[in-house]
Design goal:
Layout lengths: L1 E10 L2 E7 L3 E6 L6 H13 L19 E9 L2 E9 L6 E4 L2 E2 L12 E4 L4 H5 L2 H15 L2 H36 L1 H54 L6 E6 L12 H22 L10 E6 L2 E2 L6 H22 L4 E5 L7 H11 L4 E6 L12 E6 L2 E4 L2
Parallel strand pairs: 3-13, 3-14, 8-12, 12-13
Antiparallel strand pairs: 1-2, 1-4, 4-5, 5-6, 6-7, 9-10, 10-11, 14-15
The structure holds adenosine-5'-diphosphate and magnesium ion.
The site of magnesium ion (MG) has 5 residues, from helix 1.
Length: 393
């Protein structure tokens, strides 16, 4: 798969840009701050409808503009798809595929698949669990776009359940204070609390349904990633201890019952029941996929907090390479994007990474200076200066 044309309107620093892309390697080279990452970020956005740099859409729209438009013409097995995304911060985004509007932007997911490597990936190893959950969920969506819906449903239910729990916690505190002053208030408040509990049961069943689906998919995904990550890590850091992954969940799972959806639903339901008292006290949902983590280990030690800078980099790259292998095995080479990564790597890792990515159908690289692009990855080149990209090779 490859992008053969990218067109931007008011995206980041670009009032407009038209960029024709060839198969194979293309490097965007230019001084820092001149707009290289903005270009590849736009391509990543078409694939995932999110940015690898920011959590919200607002910074993607050019300062002073109302909306941004990103268009990508994607070719896969000789078939073309034109994907157009209109980014409207604070309002619903819109998408068109082959010039026809789709009901929801997420229907345009899956037409372009990318694997993006960036300095921000170090957070996969050093950062909070939310970074690793996002890595897993983004990969789930890339492999099967319907997971965008599962994730959105889970997040929505979680938010509503948390609102209810917060109300319940506040009511309880009010009741305790009230009870001290006036016994009658307690009776009034407890009638309200009964409503809360029955509403909570309804939210529990939704949370269990979507949560178990997410949990099952993440656990399967981690099993698929384990050997691929270990292999990629061993290639990048042959002298280091072996890399391993483990999905860690607060949901209590018995070891011998398997991992079917039904079993996970039961387990999540039971864990929620167990946590309910504490949840009512604290006003927040304490178990479920939103609290889980992907544990990364190097030999006996956790990578987080123990791995050296070089090992952390290798682990982050290994996770991305494993994702690339999985997507490729599903069918169709994803577009590889390497944003400013070669400058960060030592000679060995640079060469290994270059060798691994060189055969991909399309590789897009950003670098501050031409020397940061490894010789194995010679190809087309754009100079990016002062917010415009000019093809020079
Ligand atoms: N929403 C925006 N509106 C206008 N300019 C922006 C916006 N977001 C980022 N920029 C500008 O884009 C530039 C950074 O571009 P970037 O692609 O990250 O540079 P690099 O070439 O180092 O990768 C900065 O000068 C920044 O001010
Ligand atoms: Mg950059």
């Amino acid at each position: 798969m490859r992008v053969c044309h990218l067109s931007l309107t008011d995206f980041r620093s670009y009032p407009s840009a038209e960029i024709a892309l060839d198969p194979g390697v293309t490097a965007f080279v230019g001084p820092n701050g001149h707009g290289k990452t903005n270009l590849v970020e736009a391509i990543g956005y078409v694939a995932t409808q999110s940015s690898h740099r920011v959590a919200t859409d607002a910074p993607l729209v050019r300062h002073g503009a109302e909306r941004a438009i990103v268009r990508a013409l994607v070719v896969r097995d000789e078939r073309r798809a034109l994907i157009e995304l209109e980014i409207n911060p604070g309002r619903a985004n819109r998408a068109r595929v082959n010039r026809s509007p789709v009901a929801r932007p997420r229907e345009a997911l899956g037409l372009l698949r990318t694997v993006l490597f960036a300095p921000e990936d170090l957070a996969l190893v050093k950062g909070d669990p939310s970074e690793r959950r996002r890595f897993l969920d983004d990969l789930l969506v890339a492999r099967a776009p319907r997971f965008a819906g599962v994730r959105a449903d889970y997040d929505r239910v979680l938010k509503q359940r948390n609102t209810l729990l917060r109300t319940a916690a506040a009511t309880r505190q009010g009741r305790r204070r009230g009870a001290r002053r006036q016994e009658d208030d307690a009776a009034f408040a407890s009638a309200g609390a009964g409503d809360v509990l029955s509403t909570l049961d309804v939210w529990d069943s939704h949370l269990v349904r979507h949560g178990a689906e997410l949990l099952a998919a993440r656990m399967d995904l981690v099993e698929a990633l384990r050997p691929l990550t270990a292999k990629a890590y061993a290639t990048l850091a042959p002298a280091s201890a072996a890399a391993d992954l483990e999905y860690r969940t607060g949901v209590k799972l018995s070891t011998d019952c398997g991992r079917s959806r039904e079993i996970l639903e039961e387990a999540l339901r039971a864990s929620l029941a167990e946590a309910r008292q504490a949840e009512l006290e604290r006003g927040v949902t304490l178990v479920g996929p939103h609290r889980d983590d992907l544990h990364l280990a190097l030999g006996e030690l956790p990578a987080r907090g123990y791995a050296s800078h070089g090992e952390s980099w290798s682990f982050a790259l290994a996770l991305r390479l494993a994702a690339y292998d999985l997507l490729r095995a599903d069918g169709g080479d994803p577009v590889l994007i390497l944003d400013d990564v070669f400058a960060e790597l030592d000679g060995h890792r640079r060469t290994r990474l270059a060798e691994i990515v060189a055969p991909a159908e399309q590789v897009l690289i950003t670098a501050a200076v031409p020397d940061d692009v490894p010789a194995e990855l010679a190809g087309a080149r754009f100079d990016v200066t002062e917010g415009s990209a000019t093809r020079v090779r």
